[in-house]
């Protein structure tokens, strides 16, 4: 019987990789294992490689493990660009090609999950498997689904709607909103909404999320992410996917209805494997003692 190592709360020191002229931070742990793929862990919005610290230490005895800060987040550069799933897809694709150098199992949480799915679907030669943890991303409207027609707005409602949209585009408002959301108490309050186990919300976690938000360029990243058009639909990507897929759901996630979303994934990729965990939006950080063994066993069994 395998002994489970207690997850570490200390982030592992990383290094930088140059991508398109920008510094990208990543962490590497564990030795390359014969006949086993490397793992690449990808964080969600506002997080970083630090968010995977409990998983890196829990998995690196069995696999070579990488975690990366998406451009615009964590310790990576924050240039003024249009941030999108396509940008991060290309970043992950090139990282696998240039740094890892072999077919890799990609695992992503939330926004990072969507980026991983994009790579898995569109670059199958680089990806041995995909693991999605409460993954983000839009689905298309179902065929034949009736779209509810909204009642005609009166002139005042139209004016208010236009005013709100105009306000959100103003630099002063964007700056004030960003100043607000990066406050430590606001971050903690948000985490309390999306973590089921409140003891997992430590001062260290809050600091790890807050710190990159004070980097130069962080405001432009924030604005770009919320103004970029939606990328390829999840159902389209699933139709292209050919590698094994594991879904890990924090079932108490208030931001997405895990059971309903699970049914949509199954509709387009019925051969997937999935587990529901008593956790919130970030099950890998909140319940690593459950996530790590499931992740490890799935890779050893499902990935040739």
Give the number of helices: 12
**Side-by-side strand order of the widest sheet:** 1-2-4-3-5-6-7-8
Task: Give the low-pLDDT segments.
Answer: 1-6, 143-157
Biggest pleated-sheet summary: 8 strands, mixed
Could you estimate the helical fraction of the residues in percent? 40-55%
Please, what is the average pLDDT? 90
Alpha-carbon distance between the termini?
Answer: 22 Å
Task: Walk me through this protein's architecture.
There is one protein chain. With 304 residues, this protein is an alpha/beta fold. Helix content is 41%, strand content 15%. It is built from twelve helices and eight strands. The chain has an eight-stranded mixed β-sheet with strand order 1-2-4-3-5-6-7-8, sandwiched between helices. α1 packs across α12, α2 crosses α3 and α3 packs parallel to α9. The longest helix is centred in the first third of the chain and has 16 residues. It starts with 14 loop residues before the first strand and ends with a helix.
Present the secondary structure layout.
Layout lengths: L14 E5 L2 E8 L8 E5 L10 H7 L5 E4 L16 H16 L3 E6 L1 H12 L4 E7 L21 H14 L2 H11 L2 H11 L8 H8 L7 H8 L8 H7 L4 E6 L7 H11 L4 E5 L5 H4 L1 H15 L2
Parallel strand pairs: 3-4, 3-5, 5-6, 6-7, 7-8
Antiparallel strand pairs: 1-2, 2-4
Helix pairs in contact: 1-12, 2-3, 3-9, 6-7
């Amino acid at each position: 019987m395998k002994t489970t190592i207690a997850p570490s709360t200390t982030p592992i020191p990383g290094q930088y990789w140059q991508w398109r002229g920008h510094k990208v931070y990543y962490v590497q742990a564990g030795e390359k294992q014969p006949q086993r793929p490397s793992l690449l862990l990808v964080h969600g919005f506002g997080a970083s490689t630090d968010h995977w610290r409990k998983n890196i230490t829990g998995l690196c005895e069995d696999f070579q493990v990488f975690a990366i800060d998406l451009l615009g987040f964590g310790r990576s550069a924050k240039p003024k660009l249009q941030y999108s799933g396509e940008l991060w897809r290309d970043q992950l694709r090139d990282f696998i090609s240039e740094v890892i150098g072999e077919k890799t199992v990609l695992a992503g949480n939330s926004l990072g999950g969507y980026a991983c799915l994009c790579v898995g679907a569109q670059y199958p030669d680089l990806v041995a498997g995909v693991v999605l943890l409460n993954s983000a991303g839009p689905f298309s409207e179902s065929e034949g689904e009736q779209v509810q027609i909204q009642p005609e707005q009166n002139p005042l409602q139209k004016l208010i709607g236009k005013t709100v949209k105009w306000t959100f585009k103003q630099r002063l408002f964007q700056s004030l909103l960003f100043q607000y959301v990066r406050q430590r108490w606001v971050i903690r309050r948000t985490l309390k909404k999306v973590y089921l186990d409140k003891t997992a919300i430590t001062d260290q976690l809050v600091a790890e999320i807050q710190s990159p938000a004070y980097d130069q360029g962080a405001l432009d990243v924030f604005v770009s992410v919320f103004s970029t058009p939606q990328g390829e639909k999840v159902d389209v990507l699933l139709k292209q996917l050919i590698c094994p897929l594991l879904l890990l759901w924090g079932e108490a996630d208030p931001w997405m209805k895990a059971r309903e979303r699970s049914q949509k994934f199954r509709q387009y990729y019925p051969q997937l494997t999935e587990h529901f965990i008593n956790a919130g939006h970030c099950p890998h950080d909140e319940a690593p003692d459950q996530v790590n063994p499931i992740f490890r066993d799935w890779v050893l069994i499902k990935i040739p």
